[in-house]
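Tokens as discussed.
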């Protein structure tokens, strides 16, 4: 069965919760001057959206794009979930089309949860056996969200024990002004450390003094407390 964006929107409206929407608007910092300023929420939980996305496989791509262009956060998230599933089930030519569509619509992928839920599965997956140069273009973008797409996409490589791009992009983000980028980078470094503690330790010994404090804290979150304090206090033996 095919669905239009209008029909899907009606289903989303029926699932809305004003109370949950109020909480989400505070949680995702939608106030004036905050990173999510002006974003609108219906108040629908992610598991509900995931379940709904499973019923929408036949939605025509132009309708998915229309959904991705919505002012409502959950509409955009649902569109991304549909694209992820379509990417994973598609042939190479389909995957390339979805990857290009994704990068052409990054202005709609404009909050950290939208980035984190989608970038590894589309951008990271597509670039796994390809030139990673697009990530260096993204990390130099003036868009906070494109820079976050760059670093969070690398978790796909990390899961394959390929750490080179993660470490390289992390260095490039040391002087970024956005704490959201420091947190995301620290998270990726922590994921590296889960796979190879020695690789992370070498990186930290070389760079911990120049890293933003929050990035360092996130990266060593799973270290034993004594080892964490060594880094936080500037001891590297």
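Sequence:
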């Amino acid at each position: 069965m095919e669905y239009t964006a209008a029909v899907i929107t009606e289903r989303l409206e029926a699932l809305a919760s004003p109370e949950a929407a109020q909480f989400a608007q505070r949680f995702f910092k939608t106030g004036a001057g905050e990173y999510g300023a002006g974003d609108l929420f219906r108040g629908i939980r992610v598991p509900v959206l995931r379940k709904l996305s499973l019923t929408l496989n036949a939605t025509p791509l132009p309708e998915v794009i229309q959904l991705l262009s919505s002012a409502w956060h959950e509409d955009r998230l649902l569109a991304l979930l549909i694209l992820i599933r379509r990417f994973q089930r598609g042939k190479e030519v389909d995957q390339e089309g979805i990857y290009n569509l994704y990068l052409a619509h990054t202005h709609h992928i404009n909050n950290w949860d939208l980035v984190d839920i989608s970038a590894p599965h589309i951008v990271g997956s597509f670039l796994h056996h390809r030139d990673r140069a697009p990530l260096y273009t993204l990390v130099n973008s003036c868009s906070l969200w494109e820079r976050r797409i760059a670093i969070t996409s690398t978790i796909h490589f990390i899961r394959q024990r390929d750490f080179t791009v993660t470490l390289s992009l992390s260095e490039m983000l040391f002087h970024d002004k956005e704490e959201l980028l420091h947190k995301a980078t620290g998270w990726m470094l922590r994921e590296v450390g889960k796979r190879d503690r020695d690789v992370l330790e070498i990186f930290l010994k070389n760079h911990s003094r120049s890293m933003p404090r929050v990035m360092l804290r996130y990266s060593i979150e799973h270290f034993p407390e004594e080892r964490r304090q060594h880094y936080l206090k500037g001891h590297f033996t």
